Every structure is written in C-alpha cells, then in structure tokens.
C-alpha cells in the first residue's frame, strides 16, 4: 500500500491521506468503534490534533512524560481500560538530536 493511504484499522476502510486527516496530527476529530465479536471485546479509538484515546482490555494505571521519536513531546497514561496520549509530534531530525542529547553514552575503559 502506498504511504499516501491509511488503513482505518479493524474497519478495513482505506482512505487517502489529505492535509486535514493526516494520522500524525489530524485536524478533523475521528472516532472509530469496534463491535464485540467471538474473539474481541468492543472498543473505540478517538484522535484529534495531539490527543489520542483508545480502549484496552486490561485494568492498569500509568502516567508518564515522554520525549521520543514515536509519540513526540507530551504526556501519556493509562486509566482503567483507557489508554490516552496528549503529545505534540516532532520531526524525525529533531527527535534524533534529542535522543543523542539524552541517551547515556558508554564509558571507555
């Protein structure tokens, strides 16, 4: 599949990426629901700007601050059965610079 198209996950819908529906930072809110079946529980995914929220099948808690090339800069967390991300994406070049600055360097013996 070309990188100019996105697959909407379990729905099987394939959409052309436009400037307003880019999956990295979508300007139009998107809510995708998943129906319960024999193998999966029902769930949802919501994305808008730097906010992503989706359902989980497990019970857990997590809160964290991130600076990386995957999420960008922001906060991530898990509430019971809900995963949330509130991050601003960063360019790959800036992400590599931040990684080089923050990663530990091996000591020469």
Report on the architecture of this protein:
The structure is a single chain. With 109 residues, the protein is mainly β. It has two domains: 1-49, no CATH class; 56-103, no CATH class. 10% of the residues lie in helices and 40% in strands. The protein is built from one helix and eight strands, in the order E-E-E-E-E-E-E-E-H. The strands form two sheets. It has a six-stranded antiparallel beta sheet with strand order 3-4-5-8-7-6. The longest helix is centred in the last third of the chain and has 11 residues, at 92-102. The chain is globular.
Q: What structural category arises from helix and sheet content? A: mainly beta
Helix content, binned percent: 10-25%
Q: What would the average pLDDT be, to the nearest integer? A: 83
The shape is globular
The strand count comes to 8
Taking strands numbered 1, 2, ... along the chain, how are they ordered across the largest sheet?
3-4-5-8-7-6
What is the number of helices? 1
What is the makeup of the main sheet? Answer: 6 strands, antiparallel
Percent range for β-strand residues: 35-45%
- Element string (H = helix, E = strand): EEEEEEEEH
What's the alpha carbon Rg, rounded to whole Å?
A: 17 Å
Number of domains: 2
């Amino acid at each position: 599949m070309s990188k100019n198209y996105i697959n909407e996950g379990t729905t099987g819908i394939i959409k052309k990426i436009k400037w307003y529906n880019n999956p990295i930072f979508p300007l139009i809110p998107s809510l995708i629901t998943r129906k319960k079946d024999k193998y999966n529980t029902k769930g949802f995914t919501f994305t808008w700007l730097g906010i992503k929220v989706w359902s989980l099948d497990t019970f857990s808690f997590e809160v964290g601050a991130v600076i990386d090339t995957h999420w960008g800069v922001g906060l991530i967390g898990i509430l019971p059965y809900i995963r949330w991300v509130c991050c601003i994406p960063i360019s790959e070049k800036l992400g590599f610079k931040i990684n080089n600055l923050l990663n530990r360097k091996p000591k020469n013996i």
